[in-house]
Amino acid sequence: MRDEGPSRALLDWYDAHARAMPWRTGPAARKAGIRPDPYAVWLSEVMLQQTTVAAVRDYFHRFTARWPGVGALAAANDGDVMAEWAGLGYYARARNLLKCARVVVAEHGGRFPETRAALLNLPGIGPYTASAIAAIAFGEQATVVDGNVERVMARLFAVETPLPAAKPELTALAEGLTPPDRPGCHAQAVMDLGATICTPKSPACGICPLRAPCRARALGTQADLPRKLPKKPKPTRHGIAYLGRRADGAWLLERRPDKGLLGGMLGWPGAEWGDAAQEAPPLAANWRDPGAEVRHTFTHFHLRLALRVADLPMDAAPARGRFIPAQEFRPSGLPTVMRKAFDLGQPALVPA
DNA sequence: TAAGCGTGGAA
DNA sequence: TTTCCAAGCTT
Pick from A6, A25, A102, A314: most CB atoms within 10 A? Predict the structure, then answer.
Protein backbone atom coordinates (compact mmCIF):
# COMPACT_ATOMS: atom_id res chain seq x y z
CA MET A 1 0.00 0.00 0.00
CA ARG A 2 1.54 3.25 -1.13
CA ASP A 3 1.52 6.31 1.11
CA GLU A 4 0.90 9.51 -0.82
CA GLY A 5 1.76 11.85 2.03
CA PRO A 6 5.52 11.52 2.42
CA SER A 7 6.03 11.05 -1.33
CA ARG A 8 4.18 14.24 -2.20
CA ALA A 9 5.93 16.27 0.50
CA LEU A 10 9.26 14.93 -0.70
CA LEU A 11 8.67 15.79 -4.36
CA ASP A 12 7.47 19.28 -3.48
CA TRP A 13 10.59 19.80 -1.41
CA TYR A 14 12.77 18.46 -4.24
CA ASP A 15 11.19 20.74 -6.83
CA ALA A 16 11.91 23.72 -4.58
CA HIS A 17 15.38 22.75 -3.40
CA ALA A 18 17.01 20.41 -5.93
CA ARG A 19 20.64 21.24 -6.36
CA ALA A 20 22.05 21.56 -9.86
CA MET A 21 24.48 18.82 -10.77
CA PRO A 22 26.35 18.28 -14.03
CA TRP A 23 24.57 14.98 -14.72
CA ARG A 24 21.09 16.31 -13.98
CA THR A 25 18.76 17.82 -16.55
CA GLY A 26 17.01 20.90 -15.25
CA PRO A 27 13.26 21.20 -14.62
CA ALA A 28 12.81 23.02 -17.96
CA ALA A 29 14.22 20.09 -19.92
CA ARG A 30 12.17 17.64 -17.91
CA LYS A 31 8.94 19.53 -18.61
CA ALA A 32 9.87 19.55 -22.29
CA GLY A 33 9.98 15.76 -22.16
CA ILE A 34 13.74 15.55 -22.51
CA ARG A 35 15.16 12.60 -20.63
CA PRO A 36 18.61 12.52 -19.10
CA ASP A 37 21.36 10.93 -21.20
CA PRO A 38 21.65 7.29 -20.01
CA TYR A 39 25.42 7.44 -20.49
CA ALA A 40 25.68 10.45 -18.18
CA VAL A 41 23.38 8.83 -15.62
CA TRP A 42 25.33 5.57 -15.68
CA LEU A 43 28.72 7.27 -15.47
CA SER A 44 27.66 9.55 -12.62
CA GLU A 45 25.97 6.77 -10.66
CA VAL A 46 29.03 4.52 -10.86
CA MET A 47 31.26 7.40 -9.78
CA LEU A 48 28.89 8.19 -6.92
CA GLN A 49 29.11 4.67 -5.47
CA GLN A 50 30.46 5.24 -1.94
CA THR A 51 31.74 8.62 -3.10
CA THR A 52 30.62 12.17 -2.37
CA VAL A 53 29.16 14.54 -4.95
CA ALA A 54 31.99 16.99 -4.30
CA ALA A 55 34.62 14.36 -5.12
CA VAL A 56 32.83 13.22 -8.29
CA ARG A 57 32.12 16.55 -9.99
CA ASP A 58 35.51 17.21 -11.64
CA TYR A 59 35.98 13.56 -12.61
CA PHE A 60 32.61 13.55 -14.33
CA HIS A 61 33.53 16.65 -16.35
CA ARG A 62 36.88 15.21 -17.40
CA PHE A 63 35.39 11.84 -18.41
CA THR A 64 32.54 13.30 -20.46
CA ALA A 65 34.85 15.80 -22.14
CA ARG A 66 37.29 13.07 -23.13
CA TRP A 67 34.76 10.31 -23.82
CA PRO A 68 31.40 11.91 -24.71
CA GLY A 69 29.53 8.64 -25.19
CA VAL A 70 29.61 4.95 -24.42
CA GLY A 71 31.10 4.20 -27.84
CA ALA A 72 34.06 6.49 -27.27
CA LEU A 73 34.64 5.03 -23.83
CA ALA A 74 34.43 1.46 -25.13
CA ALA A 75 37.18 2.29 -27.63
CA ALA A 76 39.41 3.95 -25.04
CA ASN A 77 42.81 2.70 -23.97
CA ASP A 78 42.60 0.86 -20.64
CA GLY A 79 45.55 2.69 -19.13
CA ASP A 80 44.10 6.05 -20.10
CA VAL A 81 40.83 5.27 -18.33
CA MET A 82 42.58 4.00 -15.19
CA ALA A 83 44.78 7.12 -15.11
CA GLU A 84 41.73 9.36 -15.49
CA TRP A 85 40.06 7.51 -12.61
CA ALA A 86 43.17 7.81 -10.41
CA GLY A 87 42.40 9.40 -7.05
CA LEU A 88 38.70 8.54 -7.07
CA GLY A 89 39.24 5.16 -5.40
CA TYR A 90 37.61 1.74 -5.64
CA TYR A 91 39.40 1.04 -8.89
CA ALA A 92 37.34 -2.05 -9.70
CA ARG A 93 34.70 0.50 -10.69
CA ALA A 94 36.92 1.78 -13.49
CA ARG A 95 37.73 -1.70 -14.73
CA ASN A 96 34.05 -2.63 -14.70
CA LEU A 97 33.16 0.69 -16.34
CA LEU A 98 35.25 -0.28 -19.35
CA LYS A 99 33.88 -3.83 -19.37
CA CYS A 100 30.35 -2.48 -19.22
CA ALA A 101 30.90 0.04 -22.02
CA ARG A 102 32.28 -2.72 -24.25
CA VAL A 103 29.36 -5.04 -23.50
CA VAL A 104 26.88 -2.26 -24.27
CA VAL A 105 28.59 -1.66 -27.62
CA ALA A 106 29.16 -5.32 -28.51
CA GLU A 107 25.87 -6.81 -27.32
CA HIS A 108 23.37 -3.95 -27.18
CA GLY A 109 24.25 -1.92 -30.26
CA GLY A 110 25.73 0.91 -28.21
CA ARG A 111 22.51 1.64 -26.33
CA PHE A 112 21.95 0.92 -22.65
CA PRO A 113 19.26 -1.64 -21.79
CA GLU A 114 16.19 0.20 -20.48
CA THR A 115 15.00 -2.07 -17.67
CA ARG A 116 16.34 -2.63 -14.20
CA ALA A 117 16.42 -6.38 -14.78
CA ALA A 118 18.54 -6.07 -17.92
CA LEU A 119 20.83 -3.43 -16.43
CA LEU A 120 21.56 -5.77 -13.50
CA ASN A 121 23.40 -8.12 -15.86
CA LEU A 122 26.03 -5.52 -16.77
CA PRO A 123 29.46 -5.41 -15.07
CA GLY A 124 29.64 -3.00 -12.15
CA ILE A 125 25.89 -2.46 -12.05
CA GLY A 126 24.29 -3.79 -8.88
CA PRO A 127 20.86 -3.35 -7.28
CA TYR A 128 21.36 0.33 -6.49
CA THR A 129 22.80 1.43 -9.82
CA ALA A 130 20.36 -0.62 -11.87
CA SER A 131 17.42 0.99 -10.09
CA ALA A 132 18.94 4.46 -10.36
CA ILE A 133 19.49 4.23 -14.12
CA ALA A 134 16.11 2.59 -14.76
CA ALA A 135 14.26 5.23 -12.74
CA ILE A 136 16.22 8.36 -13.67
CA ALA A 137 17.02 7.69 -17.32
CA PHE A 138 14.06 5.50 -18.35
CA GLY A 139 11.23 6.35 -15.95
CA GLU A 140 10.80 2.83 -14.57
CA GLN A 141 9.10 2.65 -11.17
CA ALA A 142 12.22 1.17 -9.61
CA THR A 143 13.13 1.71 -5.98
CA VAL A 144 16.56 3.10 -5.31
CA VAL A 145 18.14 2.07 -2.00
CA ASP A 146 21.46 3.54 -0.97
CA GLY A 147 22.85 4.60 2.39
CA ASN A 148 20.76 7.77 2.36
CA VAL A 149 17.54 5.91 1.67
CA GLU A 150 18.33 3.37 4.38
CA ARG A 151 18.88 6.16 6.89
CA VAL A 152 15.74 8.08 5.90
CA MET A 153 13.57 4.95 6.04
CA ALA A 154 15.06 3.82 9.36
CA ARG A 155 14.15 7.18 10.89
CA LEU A 156 10.84 7.76 9.14
CA PHE A 157 9.59 4.36 10.35
CA ALA A 158 11.73 4.10 13.50
CA VAL A 159 13.34 0.81 12.47
CA GLU A 160 15.48 -0.49 15.34
CA THR A 161 16.97 -3.48 13.51
CA PRO A 162 20.69 -2.87 12.97
CA LEU A 163 22.24 -2.76 9.51
CA PRO A 164 23.03 -4.71 7.45
CA ALA A 165 20.29 -7.09 8.68
CA ALA A 166 17.70 -4.31 8.32
CA LYS A 167 18.34 -3.91 4.60
CA PRO A 168 15.40 -6.03 3.31
CA GLU A 169 13.00 -4.30 5.71
CA LEU A 170 14.23 -0.85 4.72
CA THR A 171 14.04 -1.76 1.04
CA ALA A 172 10.41 -2.84 1.44
CA LEU A 173 9.56 0.43 3.19
CA ALA A 174 11.24 2.41 0.40
CA GLU A 175 9.31 0.44 -2.21
CA GLY A 176 6.10 1.48 -0.51
CA LEU A 177 6.98 5.13 -1.05
CA THR A 178 8.08 4.92 -4.68
CA PRO A 179 5.54 6.70 -6.89
CA PRO A 180 4.65 5.64 -10.45
CA ASP A 181 5.16 9.22 -11.63
CA ARG A 182 8.65 10.71 -11.66
CA PRO A 183 10.27 7.76 -9.86
CA GLY A 184 13.69 9.16 -10.77
CA CYS A 185 12.97 12.52 -9.18
CA HIS A 186 11.61 10.72 -6.12
CA ALA A 187 14.79 8.68 -5.79
CA GLN A 188 16.98 11.74 -6.06
CA ALA A 189 14.74 13.57 -3.61
CA VAL A 190 15.23 10.92 -0.92
CA MET A 191 18.97 10.87 -1.53
CA ASP A 192 19.23 14.67 -1.49
CA LEU A 193 17.23 14.72 1.73
CA GLY A 194 19.61 12.23 3.29
CA ALA A 195 22.64 14.16 2.09
CA THR A 196 21.52 17.60 3.23
CA ILE A 197 18.89 17.33 6.00
CA CYS A 198 18.52 13.77 7.26
CA THR A 199 22.28 13.58 7.78
CA PRO A 200 24.02 10.85 9.82
CA LYS A 201 24.89 13.22 12.66
CA SER A 202 22.69 16.04 13.98
CA PRO A 203 19.93 15.88 11.35
CA ALA A 204 18.15 19.17 10.63
CA CYS A 205 14.70 17.93 11.65
CA GLY A 206 13.41 21.47 12.06
CA ILE A 207 13.44 22.10 8.31
CA CYS A 208 12.71 18.54 7.16
CA PRO A 209 9.73 18.11 4.84
CA LEU A 210 9.07 14.74 6.54
CA ARG A 211 9.20 15.97 10.13
CA ALA A 212 5.44 15.46 10.60
CA PRO A 213 5.23 11.76 9.72
CA CYS A 214 8.72 10.91 11.05
CA ARG A 215 8.43 8.27 13.79
CA ALA A 216 12.00 8.62 15.06
CA ARG A 217 11.53 12.38 15.33
CA ALA A 218 8.48 11.81 17.49
CA LEU A 219 10.37 9.34 19.68
CA GLY A 220 13.52 11.46 19.80
CA THR A 221 15.65 8.58 18.48
CA GLN A 222 16.57 10.09 15.12
CA ALA A 223 20.24 10.61 15.98
CA ASP A 224 20.59 6.92 16.96
CA LEU A 225 19.18 5.53 13.72
CA PRO A 226 19.94 3.58 11.70
CA ARG A 227 21.59 1.30 14.21
CA LYS A 228 24.74 -0.41 12.98
CA LEU A 229 26.81 -3.36 14.06
CA PRO A 230 30.22 -2.38 15.48
CA LYS A 231 33.13 -2.33 13.04
CA LYS A 232 36.34 -4.28 13.20
CA PRO A 233 39.49 -2.35 14.09
CA LYS A 234 41.95 -1.64 11.28
CA PRO A 235 45.37 -3.33 11.54
CA THR A 236 48.54 -1.54 10.42
CA ARG A 237 50.58 -2.91 7.53
CA HIS A 238 54.05 -1.91 6.44
CA GLY A 239 55.82 -1.67 3.11
CA ILE A 240 58.57 -0.04 1.07
CA ALA A 241 58.16 1.82 -2.23
CA TYR A 242 61.08 2.14 -4.64
CA LEU A 243 61.17 5.37 -6.65
CA GLY A 244 63.72 4.88 -9.42
CA ARG A 245 64.47 7.62 -11.94
CA ARG A 246 66.60 6.97 -15.00
CA ALA A 247 69.15 9.53 -16.24
CA ASP A 248 66.72 10.66 -18.96
CA GLY A 249 64.03 11.37 -16.36
CA ALA A 250 61.97 8.21 -16.97
CA TRP A 251 60.37 6.66 -13.87
CA LEU A 252 60.28 2.95 -13.07
CA LEU A 253 56.68 1.91 -12.45
CA GLU A 254 54.71 -1.30 -12.63
CA ARG A 255 51.14 -2.10 -13.54
CA ARG A 256 49.43 -3.86 -10.65
CA PRO A 257 47.44 -7.02 -11.39
CA ASP A 258 43.76 -6.52 -12.17
CA LYS A 259 42.57 -8.29 -9.05
CA GLY A 260 43.05 -6.98 -5.54
CA LEU A 261 44.04 -3.68 -4.02
CA LEU A 262 44.66 -0.86 -6.53
CA GLY A 263 44.08 -3.45 -9.27
CA GLY A 264 45.01 -2.27 -12.75
CA MET A 265 46.73 0.87 -11.49
CA LEU A 266 50.33 1.97 -11.87
CA GLY A 267 52.45 1.87 -8.73
CA TRP A 268 56.00 1.93 -7.44
CA PRO A 269 57.74 -1.45 -7.20
CA GLY A 270 57.95 -3.02 -3.76
CA ALA A 271 57.13 -6.15 -1.81
CA GLU A 272 53.60 -6.98 -0.76
CA TRP A 273 52.53 -5.03 2.32
CA GLY A 274 52.42 -7.02 5.55
CA ASP A 275 53.13 -7.05 9.25
CA ALA A 276 56.71 -5.98 8.58
CA ALA A 277 58.35 -4.14 5.68
CA GLN A 278 60.32 -6.42 3.36
CA GLU A 279 63.20 -5.31 1.18
CA ALA A 280 62.41 -5.92 -2.50
CA PRO A 281 64.30 -3.54 -4.80
CA PRO A 282 63.41 -4.08 -8.48
CA LEU A 283 67.13 -3.93 -9.34
CA ALA A 284 70.44 -3.36 -7.63
CA ALA A 285 71.18 0.33 -7.21
CA ASN A 286 72.24 2.89 -4.65
CA TRP A 287 68.83 3.09 -2.96
CA ARG A 288 68.68 5.90 -0.41
CA ASP A 289 66.21 6.58 2.38
CA PRO A 290 64.79 10.09 2.02
CA GLY A 291 63.74 9.93 5.67
CA ALA A 292 60.05 10.35 5.06
CA GLU A 293 57.22 7.88 5.42
CA VAL A 294 53.85 7.74 3.68
CA ARG A 295 50.90 7.24 5.99
CA HIS A 296 47.73 6.19 4.27
CA THR A 297 44.52 4.54 5.36
CA PHE A 298 42.63 2.12 3.16
CA THR A 299 39.19 0.68 3.78
CA HIS A 300 40.42 -2.13 5.99
CA PHE A 301 43.97 -1.29 7.13
CA HIS A 302 46.41 1.50 7.85
CA LEU A 303 49.60 1.58 5.80
CA ARG A 304 53.02 2.92 6.74
CA LEU A 305 55.12 3.03 3.61
CA ALA A 306 58.88 3.61 3.80
CA LEU A 307 60.58 5.09 0.74
CA ARG A 308 63.77 4.37 -1.21
CA VAL A 309 64.95 6.57 -4.05
CA ALA A 310 67.71 6.03 -6.61
CA ASP A 311 69.14 7.53 -9.79
CA LEU A 312 69.34 4.73 -12.34
CA PRO A 313 71.67 4.41 -15.32
CA MET A 314 70.40 4.40 -18.90
CA ASP A 315 71.23 0.69 -19.24
CA ALA A 316 69.27 -0.28 -16.13
CA ALA A 317 67.44 -3.57 -16.67
CA PRO A 318 64.93 -3.97 -13.83
CA ALA A 319 63.46 -7.38 -13.07
CA ARG A 320 59.99 -5.88 -12.82
CA GLY A 321 58.09 -2.87 -14.10
CA ARG A 322 58.87 -0.57 -16.99
CA PHE A 323 60.20 2.92 -17.48
CA ILE A 324 57.62 5.62 -18.15
CA PRO A 325 59.18 8.50 -20.13
CA ALA A 326 59.24 11.81 -18.29
CA GLN A 327 56.93 13.33 -20.90
CA GLU A 328 54.26 10.70 -20.31
CA PHE A 329 54.50 10.57 -16.53
CA ARG A 330 51.74 12.34 -14.61
CA PRO A 331 51.57 11.99 -10.82
CA SER A 332 47.83 12.60 -11.15
CA GLY A 333 47.57 9.29 -12.99
CA LEU A 334 48.67 7.38 -9.88
CA PRO A 335 46.41 6.15 -7.09
CA THR A 336 46.63 8.52 -4.13
CA VAL A 337 48.93 6.40 -1.98
CA MET A 338 51.43 6.19 -4.85
CA ARG A 339 51.14 9.89 -5.57
CA LYS A 340 51.89 10.60 -1.89
CA ALA A 341 55.02 8.47 -2.22
CA PHE A 342 56.07 10.50 -5.26
CA ASP A 343 55.40 13.81 -3.51
CA LEU A 344 57.57 12.80 -0.55
CA GLY A 345 60.34 10.98 -2.42
CA GLN A 346 60.83 13.03 -5.57
CA PRO A 347 62.45 16.05 -3.85
CA ALA A 348 65.23 13.75 -2.59
CA LEU A 349 66.22 13.07 -6.22
CA VAL A 350 66.34 16.62 -7.49
CA PRO A 351 69.98 17.82 -7.57
CA ALA A 352 70.56 20.63 -5.11
C1' DT B 1 27.91 -14.44 3.49
C1' DA B 2 31.22 -11.65 5.13
C1' DA B 3 35.15 -9.63 3.55
C1' DG B 4 37.74 -6.91 0.28
C1' DC B 5 37.96 -2.75 -1.92
C1' DG B 6 39.92 4.15 -1.72
C1' DT B 7 39.63 8.50 -0.64
C1' DG B 8 38.88 12.97 1.48
C1' DG B 9 36.02 15.81 4.35
C1' DA B 10 33.77 16.55 8.71
C1' DA B 11 33.45 16.39 13.62
C1' DT C 1 44.62 12.50 16.01
C1' DT C 2 41.10 9.39 15.29
C1' DT C 3 36.80 7.91 13.80
C1' DC C 4 33.09 8.01 10.89
C1' DC C 5 31.37 7.66 6.74
C1' DA C 6 29.54 8.78 1.21
C1' DA C 7 24.49 8.09 -4.43
C1' DG C 8 27.84 -0.22 -3.52
C1' DC C 9 29.66 -4.18 -6.19
C1' DT C 10 31.96 -8.55 -6.39
C1' DT C 11 33.17 -12.94 -4.86
Answer: A6
